[in-house]
Protein backbone atom coordinates (compact mmCIF):
# COMPACT_ATOMS: atom_id res chain seq x y z
CA UNK A 1 0.00 0.00 0.00
CA UNK A 2 1.38 3.37 -0.96
CA UNK A 3 1.01 6.49 1.17
CA UNK A 4 -1.48 7.84 -1.39
CA UNK A 5 -3.57 4.66 -1.10
CA UNK A 6 -3.40 4.89 2.71
CA UNK A 7 -4.73 8.45 2.68
CA UNK A 8 -7.70 7.48 0.51
CA UNK A 9 -8.44 4.04 2.00
CA UNK A 10 -11.89 3.31 3.45
CA UNK A 11 -10.44 2.82 6.97
CA UNK A 12 -7.27 3.82 8.76
CA UNK A 13 -4.80 1.15 7.54
CA UNK A 14 -2.59 1.73 10.58
CA UNK A 15 -5.37 0.92 13.06
CA UNK A 16 -4.30 -2.25 14.88
CA UNK A 17 -7.86 -3.56 14.96
CA UNK A 18 -8.11 -3.62 11.15
CA UNK A 19 -6.78 -6.22 8.70
CA UNK A 20 -5.60 -5.55 5.16
CA UNK A 21 -7.35 -7.89 2.77
CA UNK A 22 -4.92 -10.27 1.05
CA UNK A 23 -7.14 -10.07 -2.04
CA UNK A 24 -6.41 -6.33 -2.28
CA UNK A 25 -2.85 -6.43 -0.94
CA UNK A 26 -1.23 -9.86 -1.43
CA UNK A 27 1.63 -10.79 0.83
CA UNK A 28 5.12 -10.16 -0.54
CA UNK A 29 7.73 -12.72 0.54
CA UNK A 30 10.84 -10.94 1.81
CA UNK A 31 12.90 -13.82 3.14
CA UNK A 32 12.93 -17.03 5.09
CA UNK A 33 13.82 -17.81 8.69
CA UNK A 34 15.32 -21.27 9.11
CA UNK A 35 15.38 -22.84 12.56
CA UNK A 36 17.50 -25.95 12.10
CA UNK A 37 19.09 -26.69 15.48
CA UNK A 38 18.41 -26.56 19.18
CA UNK A 39 20.45 -24.19 21.37
CA UNK A 40 23.59 -25.69 22.90
CA UNK A 41 23.72 -23.15 25.73
CA UNK A 42 20.21 -22.09 26.73
CA UNK A 43 21.29 -18.99 28.65
CA UNK A 44 23.70 -17.67 26.01
CA UNK A 45 21.46 -18.40 23.01
CA UNK A 46 17.91 -18.00 24.34
CA UNK A 47 17.84 -15.99 27.58
CA UNK A 48 20.08 -13.24 26.17
CA UNK A 49 18.47 -12.92 22.74
CA UNK A 50 17.05 -9.50 21.94
CA UNK A 51 14.70 -8.99 19.00
CA UNK A 52 13.85 -5.49 17.88
CA UNK A 53 11.60 -4.09 15.15
CA UNK A 54 14.16 -1.27 14.77
CA UNK A 55 16.62 -3.71 13.16
CA UNK A 56 15.63 -3.42 9.53
CA UNK A 57 17.59 -4.33 6.43
CA UNK A 58 18.48 -1.40 4.16
CA UNK A 59 15.57 -0.50 1.90
CA UNK A 60 12.85 -1.64 4.34
CA UNK A 61 11.38 1.18 6.42
CA UNK A 62 8.87 1.22 9.27
CA UNK A 63 5.31 2.36 8.64
CA UNK A 64 3.74 5.29 10.49
CA UNK A 65 1.75 2.85 12.63
CA UNK A 66 1.69 4.39 16.13
CA UNK A 67 2.23 1.08 17.93
CA UNK A 68 5.23 0.21 15.75
CA UNK A 69 6.72 3.68 16.22
CA UNK A 70 6.56 3.20 19.99
CA UNK A 71 8.13 -0.25 19.75
CA UNK A 72 11.03 1.03 17.61
CA UNK A 73 12.18 2.91 20.70
CA UNK A 74 10.94 0.79 23.57
CA UNK A 75 12.33 -2.61 22.52
CA UNK A 76 15.92 -1.35 22.34
CA UNK A 77 15.46 0.54 25.59
CA UNK A 78 14.16 -2.62 27.26
CA UNK A 79 17.17 -4.59 26.01
CA UNK A 80 19.53 -1.97 27.48
CA UNK A 81 17.80 -2.35 30.83
CA UNK A 82 17.63 -6.16 30.74
CA UNK A 83 21.02 -7.00 29.20
CA UNK A 84 23.13 -3.85 29.63
CA UNK A 85 24.29 -1.04 27.38
CA UNK A 86 26.26 -3.40 25.14
CA UNK A 87 23.44 -5.86 24.48
CA UNK A 88 24.11 -5.69 20.74
CA UNK A 89 27.64 -7.09 21.28
CA UNK A 90 26.43 -10.35 22.83
CA UNK A 91 27.14 -13.00 20.17
CA UNK A 92 23.51 -14.11 19.79
CA UNK A 93 22.50 -10.49 18.99
CA UNK A 94 25.38 -9.55 16.68
CA UNK A 95 24.81 -9.42 12.95
CA UNK A 96 26.38 -12.48 11.36
CA UNK A 97 30.08 -11.87 10.63
CA UNK A 98 29.84 -8.15 11.38
CA UNK A 99 31.56 -6.09 14.04
CA UNK A 100 29.62 -3.69 16.22
CA UNK A 101 30.64 -0.12 15.42
CA UNK A 102 28.96 2.43 17.62
CA UNK A 103 30.08 5.04 20.11
CA UNK A 104 29.39 3.16 23.33
CA UNK A 105 32.31 2.15 25.50
CA UNK A 106 32.80 -0.08 28.52
CA UNK A 107 29.82 -1.00 30.67
CA UNK A 108 28.28 -4.36 31.48
CA UNK A 109 28.25 -7.14 28.90
CA UNK A 110 31.12 -5.63 26.89
CA UNK A 111 32.30 -8.72 25.04
CA UNK A 112 34.08 -7.31 21.99
CA UNK A 113 37.27 -5.77 23.38
CA UNK A 114 35.90 -2.24 23.79
CA UNK A 115 36.22 -1.62 20.03
CA UNK A 116 40.02 -1.47 20.31
CA UNK A 117 40.27 2.17 21.31
CA UNK A 118 38.37 3.47 18.28
CA UNK A 119 37.39 7.15 18.56
CA UNK A 120 34.26 7.89 20.52
CA UNK A 121 33.02 10.80 18.40
CA UNK A 122 31.35 11.41 15.06
CA UNK A 123 32.33 12.30 12.42
CA UNK A 124 35.85 10.92 12.47
CA UNK A 125 38.44 9.93 9.90
CA UNK A 126 39.26 6.60 11.51
CA UNK A 127 37.12 3.46 11.49
CA UNK A 128 33.81 4.95 12.60
CA UNK A 129 30.50 4.30 10.90
CA UNK A 130 30.16 6.00 7.54
CA UNK A 131 27.00 7.70 6.37
CA UNK A 132 25.67 5.92 3.29
CA UNK A 133 23.16 8.16 1.53
CA UNK A 134 21.73 5.20 -0.42
CA UNK A 135 19.93 4.06 2.74
CA UNK A 136 18.60 7.42 3.87
CA UNK A 137 15.09 6.99 5.23
CA UNK A 138 12.37 8.26 2.98
CA UNK A 139 10.19 11.15 4.02
CA UNK A 140 6.46 11.55 3.80
CA UNK A 141 4.23 14.54 4.26
CA UNK A 142 1.56 14.87 6.88
CA UNK A 143 -1.55 16.97 7.05
CA UNK A 144 -4.17 17.73 9.63
CA UNK A 145 -4.56 19.35 13.00
CA UNK A 146 -3.00 18.27 16.25
CA UNK A 147 -6.05 17.51 18.33
CA UNK A 148 -7.90 14.69 20.03
CA UNK A 149 -9.10 12.12 17.51
CA UNK A 150 -12.77 11.17 17.59
CA UNK A 151 -13.09 7.59 16.39
CA UNK A 152 -16.85 7.35 17.04
CA UNK A 153 -17.73 7.38 13.34
CA UNK A 154 -15.36 4.60 12.28
CA UNK A 155 -16.71 1.31 10.93
CA UNK A 156 -15.73 -1.28 13.52
CA UNK A 157 -18.13 -4.00 12.37
CA UNK A 158 -17.64 -4.73 8.65
CA UNK A 159 -14.32 -6.55 9.00
CA UNK A 160 -15.52 -8.56 12.00
CA UNK A 161 -18.63 -9.59 10.06
CA UNK A 162 -16.58 -10.71 7.05
CA UNK A 163 -14.26 -12.68 9.35
CA UNK A 164 -17.26 -14.38 11.00
CA UNK A 165 -18.99 -15.21 7.70
CA UNK A 166 -16.08 -16.00 5.38
CA UNK A 167 -13.17 -17.25 7.51
CA UNK A 168 -14.53 -19.14 10.49
CA UNK A 169 -16.10 -22.55 10.10
CA UNK A 170 -18.97 -24.03 12.13
CA UNK A 171 -16.53 -25.78 14.49
CA UNK A 172 -14.63 -22.59 15.24
Kindly describe this structure.
The chain has 172 residues and is mainly alpha-helical. The chain is 23% helix and 0% strand. The chain has four helices and no strands. It has helices spanning 3-8, 42-47, 66-83, 158-167. The longest helix is centred in the middle third of the chain and has 18 residues, at 66-83. It is extended. The two termini are 31 Å apart.
Summarize the topology.
Blueprint: H1 3-8, H2 42-47, H3 66-83, H4 158-167
User: SSE order, as H and E?
Assistant: HHHH
Distance between the termini: 31 Å
DSSP strand count? 0
* Helical proportion, percent range: 10-25%
Strand content bin:
under 5%
Mean pLDDT across residues: 81
Query: Which parts are unreliable, with pLDDT below 50 for 5 consecutive residues or more?
Result: none
Question: What characteristic shape results from the CA principal axes?
Answer: extended
Largest sheet: none
> Pairing-aware structural class of the strands and helices?
mainly alpha
Rg? 22 Å
The total count of helices amounts to: 4
Give descriptors for this structure.
single chain; 172 residues; mainly alpha; 4 helices; extended
Amino acid sequence: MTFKQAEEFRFNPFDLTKIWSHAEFPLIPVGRLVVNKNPRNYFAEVEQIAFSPAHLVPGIEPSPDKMLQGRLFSYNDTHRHRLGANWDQIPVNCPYRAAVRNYQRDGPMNVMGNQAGAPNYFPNSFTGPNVDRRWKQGSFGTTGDVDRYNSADEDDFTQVGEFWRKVLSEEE
